[in-house]
Amino acid sequence: MTHRAELTQGLAAIGLDLSDAQIDLLEGYLGLLAKWNQTYNLTAIRDKDRMVSYHLLDSLTLVPQLAGGTRMLDVGSGGGMPGIPTAIARPDLKVVVLDANHKKTTFLRQAVIELKLDNVEVITERVEAYQPAEKFDRITSRAFSELAEFVKLSRHLLAADGQFVAMKGVYPFEEIAQLPADFAVAEVKKLDVPGLDAEQRHLVRVVAK
Hints:
The chain has seven helices and seven strands. It is an alpha/beta fold and 209 residues long. It has one domain: Vaccinia Virus protein VP39 (Rossmann fold, 3-Layer(aba) Sandwich). The protein has a seven-stranded mixed beta sheet with strand order 3-2-1-4-5-7-6, sandwiched between helices. Strand 4, helix 6 and strand 5 form a beta-alpha-beta unit. The N and C termini lie far apart (47 Å). InterPro entries: rRNA_ssu_MeTfrase_G (IPR003682), SAM-dependent_MTases_sf (IPR029063). This is Ribosomal RNA small subunit methyltransferase G.
């Protein structure tokens, strides 16, 4: 199966209806990720075939869960997941991808330029030091840290009535138990990622009490 066919089938399974132009952008991003990964070690997954499910489709399961939102911060974005695929799927969403690693943000800036993603801003900064002019109504992370650490380090960036939307593997019972006392879990949702049948994925929605 071609990458495009796998992507198209996966999008249908997730329930995302993207245009041919958006699928072109996702394929373009996949190509850049695979190319730069040879030099910059952006992801442990080297096989471009596996990147479709492990990176693109896994990231895109976030999109239906954003429940609106106008400004999203992707903390510890690394190679751009889930921020870049989300920005492609939601061109109306302002997305900031943040990482403290200069090599990774160099790649992210190049990807944003080449793919002409006008709704994406790349920031090289530690999240606890980041002070934007405007806060975010959605803050996400995919492989940044444990839940409590993620909330503690980025709580100053959450807008009133905003949500943390963290992407996790197995159900994170222990991480949830360690959350700061003034935050609560609003929802834990099992995510079905096409092509990752054997692996458990969950989305944890956290809000201020």
